[in-house]
Write a structure and sequence with these properties.
The protein is an alpha+beta fold. It contains 18 helices and 12 strands. Strand 10 and strand 11 form a beta hairpin. Helix 8 packs across helix 9. The longest helix has 32 residues. It is globular and about 70 Å long.
């Protein structure tokens, strides 16, 4: 865009309440989802706020969100916006890779989650759930956030790294993965290399995880004639255009990135799904009848059968509307943008809020009410308003795996158990302390075996 053309454009309205030096960082850290809703309410479709010197423009509403999600990397860069992920995924992996290598790595990641693999993953998840509930007994009480974190870590490891690793998995691996997750606090998106204890633990965990995964890779290379049918096999066989294979560091990074896509978001959503079944029991009978009908027809829930559960899927869609796992999506502006006569300058960050979008009463009437019978969210009319996994060419690669995992879990649980809240309904709140949404802890539910 020429300088003269840029001068003719207006600038985005600025969000009031900026403080010297830190801008809006303090308010953002207290409750960033509500802060973003204030930005939209006070400034409209575009709202510029200051994150300790990084000017960010929030784009709200389906039209603006469509422009964001359809933006090309050469204009709106994911890599530049997500440098906080580089120490987690590793140097030279995805957001730290040159564009062509990043494109190839993401394609290999998608290949690992294709239909053929998903069929075997469904069987793996079903078995993990069977093992999980085997010791429950007839009734009890648990913190289901902790339980789902444990379960989805097991299913993700089993699908990605294979049965051998899953059944040898130690508490060390779980602790290392937790340290990686803790390294994604909001401050990491300002500077992920600050001298902070959580960042030191993150870096130590990343190095140790590479050691553990490299041991598996070496063992598999020594047994090259064996087939595994998991994601690690796909990553090890993937190549760049010049025929070279991915390094151990790159494979480790893809494993971590795919685990984040398949586990990091699923555990919180699974916990919220259980809470919403307990908090809204009037919807359970129709979902349960649907699941029981599928069992009656085939005896087991295959990947194909899981695709024939529309009522369960609608219930999960409504959970994802009220509790979207990724609250904020970001891009860095590489070239000046003219958005409907407003200049968004290169160097700024642009962002969209799934949390705010899903609470827009123009598209979701009475938005705080949980209602899986509301008009289906994944329609053309709501395509750019309902965005739990983003959208466009960069939609989350793990969304199909996450949905399959959630349906597998609850298709197994609902015929066996009913759930009740332990604490007051209003005490179950979104935990907004990190960039991935989950229920506040403890998330206690009482379960009781269903009577025939």
């Amino acid at each position: 865009m020429s300088e003269s053309a840029a001068l003719e454009l207006k600038l985005p309205p600025k969000v009031p309440g900026e403080k010297p030096g830190t801008g809006h960082m303090e308010e953002f850290n207290v409750n960033f989802a509500r802060f973003l809703m204030r930005c939209n309410a006070e400034c409209g479709e575009l709202a510029e706020y200051n994150m300790a010197g990084q000017q960010t423009v929030l784009m709200s509403g389906p039209e603006a969100q469509e422009a964001f999600l359809k933006g090309l990397d050469k204009q709106l860069s994911r890599a530049a916006a997500y440098q906080a992920m580089v120490p987690v995924f590793g140097e030279g992996v995805i957001f730290d890779a040159p564009p062509e290598r990043m494109k190839t790595q993401l394609k290999i990641q998608v290949d690992a989650l294709r239909y053929q693999n998903m069929k075997s993953y469904a069987q793996v998840i079903a078995q993990e759930v069977e093992d999980w509930v085997a010791g429950w007994g007839d009734e009890g009480e648990m913190d289901f956030l902790d339980e789902f974190i444990r379960l989805t870590l097991h299913t993700a490891c089993h699908c990605l790294l294979g049965a051998d690793f899953r059944y040898k998995m130690t508490e060390e691996f779980k602790s290392l993965y937790h340290d990686l997750e803790r390294g994604l606090q909001a401050i990491a998106f300002v500077d992920p290399y600050l001298q902070q204890p959580i960042f030191a633990a993150r870096d130590k965990a990343r190095a140790r995880l590479q050691e553990l995964i490299s041991e598996i890779i070496a063992e598999r290379r020594a047994n090259a004639d064996r087939q595994y049918g998991d994601a690690l096999e796909t990553f090890m066989s993937g190549t760049y255009k010049d025929g070279t294979h991915l390094s151990d560091n790159e494979i480790t990074g893809l494993v971590i990135a795919t685990m984040f896509a398949g586990h990091h978001t699923s555990s919180g959503t699974a916990a919220w799904t259980a809470v919403e079944f307990a908090r809204n029991p009037e919807f359970t009978p129709e979902v349960l009848a649907e699941v029981q009908q599928v069992y009656a027809q085939g005896g087991e829930l295959t990947f194909e059968a899981l695709r024939e559960l529309p009522k369960l899927e609608r219930f999960i869609e409504e959970v994802l509307r009220l509790h979207p796992p990724l609250v904020l999506l970001m891009r860095r502006v590489i070239e000046d943008i003219d958005y409907k006569g407003t200049l968004i300058e290169a160097g700024k960050t642009v962002a969209i809020s799934t949390y705010g979008s899903h609470r827009n009463p123009d598209y979701f009437p009475d938005p705080e009410r949980f209602d899986p019978r509301r008009p289906q969210a994944n329609t053309a009319q709501l395509m750019w308003a309902y965005i739990p996994f983003g959208g466009g060419p960069h939609k989350c690669a793990g969304n199909a795996f996450a949905l399959m995992q959630l349906k597998s879990i609850f298709a197994a649980l609902l015929p066996r158990y009913e759930f009740e809240l332990v604490d007051a309904p209003e005490s179950y709140q979104d935990d907004l302390s990190a960039m991935v949404l989950k229920p506040s802890s403890p998330c206690r539910l009482r379960y009781r075996r269903r009577q025939p």
